[in-house]
Amino acid sequence: MDTFGFLIHPEDTSDVEKKFPALKNWPPAVLEQMMRHSPALLVDHLQRIQSPHNEVEGWFVATTLTAKQMLNLPLPTVLQKIIRAGKKAERAGAKILGLGAFTSVIGDAGITIAKHLNIPVTTGNSYTVSTAIEATKQAAILMGIDPRQAHVVVVGATGAIGAICARLLAPEAGKLTLVARDEHKLEMIAGLIMSESGKLADISTNPRQAVRQAQIVVTVTGSADTVLYPEDLRTGAVVCDVARPRDVARQVAETRSDVLVIEGGLVEVPGEYESRFRFGLPKGIVFACMAETMMLALEQKYESFTLGRHIRVEQVREIEGLAQKHGFKVAGFRSFGKQLTPEMIRAIRDMGPAQGKTAAAAVNLGSAGGAAGDFLY
Predict the structure, then answer these.
(1) With contact defined as beta carbons under 8 Å apart, do 150 and 215 qualify?
(2) Does residue 361 lie in a domain region?
(3) Which of 47, 53, 6 is nearest to 273 (CA)?
(4) Considering only CA atoms, which of 68, 67, 72, 107 is closest in space to residue 309?
(5) Domain total for the chain?
(6) Are 248 and 314 part of one and the same domain?
(7) DSSP label at 40?
(8) What burial letters (b/e) apply to 52-72, b meaning 16+ CB within 10 Å?
(9) Predicted confidence band at 370 (pLDDT cuts at 50, 70, 90)?
(10) What local confidence, expressed as pLDDT, does residue 54 receive?
């Protein structure tokens, strides 16, 4: 049987309290200290992932550090915890390891982790890019926007994911603006896009100003702070926030009934896949980074597919081909931890700013399905 492992972790101490009620009254600081020294947990055995070509099984392994701990603890401490979780997946029988949520961005984005394991590692970012772009296009159409005529802005365009998103979006954008802090790097990406697609991209170092006239925004900075706020966005805009931590302020969903924020694409898994860890998603639906790990196992492609800060166009196209071959497909949208349906998106499109906070909350948050829950993917 072909196999995989996938790393998850709690978002904060409340996730741990949900799984272990006996810890509910522990002070967060004490609980975090305990979690820092706790071993990795084998939390689920995943079965019945079946494509027309193969069947695989896998394991969710949780490292007990929270998102905040991963950002604030010394890097060697965090990497050691992640590597130990990876070794637990190895011992369970995994032949490839996927890095979920913050485990995929710490340090050098998986390179050091892979060097300390005996199985290949992938961050899943190639398929994350692919599904984010596809979901953004689908959402734009539902919002009445033709991407070929739209002003598209990529925030964080000099980073690994931002650069590849900009290059893939360029041929189909009406107008393209690249945003990042380093003007020299922006000019280099703009020059590459010109040579590849003939598209002349504008550049900016001011994200809040750059997005004000944008109909489509893809934002994927490495900032620990909020980048975009409610007053920055144009009525009817579609914003795909691929960043973790999020670039878009939650207040956008709470106060702007006329703006759609999505987190990228959700993916339908072939076969009868089910897990006790659903992450607030319907049965059979996973995140793209998980899906990439699954399809690499299905393909018996046991190599470190997506690692580090550089993603090639060829990688994205290859993973798209594997998704089509094995029956994975984009299955929906997510906004601030909630699932959105096409009907809800059309409702956002039809709402004007006059409806205000109450309407926005009803559409974007209150009616969007189950809570994110569980551990972070």
Answers:
(1) yes
(2) yes
(3) 47
(4) 107
(5) 2
(6) no
(7) P
(8) eeeebbbbbbbbbbbbebbee
(9) very low
(10) 97
DSSP string, 229-274: -GGGS-TT-EEEE--SS-SB-THHHHH-TT-EEE--EEEEPSEEEE
**In degrees to the nearest 10, what's the CA dihedral of 181, 184, 190, 192?**
-130
Residue 366 has a pLDDT of 32
116 in any annotated domain? yes
- Percent of the chain residues topping a pLDDT of 90: 69
Task: For residue 301, give both structure tokens.
Answer: 């492609």
Q: For the ranges 235-249, 252-266, 313-327, 330-344, which has the lowest average pLDDT?
A: 330-344
Same domain, 147 and 73: no
Its domain, for residue 67, covers 2-126+270-328
Amino acid at 207: P
- 22, with CB counted inside 10 A (0-12, 13-18, 19+), is exposed
Quote the Cα angle for 291-292-297, to 5°: 95
Indicate whether 373 belongs to any domain: no
Sign of torsion, CA 140 141 142 144?
Answer: positive
Whether residue 235 sits in one domain with residue 261: yes
pLDDT computed for residue 367 by the predictor: 31
Amino acid at 241: D
> Residue 376 — very low, low, confident or very high, per pLDDT cuts 50/70/90?
low
Are 132 and 229 in the same domain? yes
Structural tokens at position 31 = 């609980």
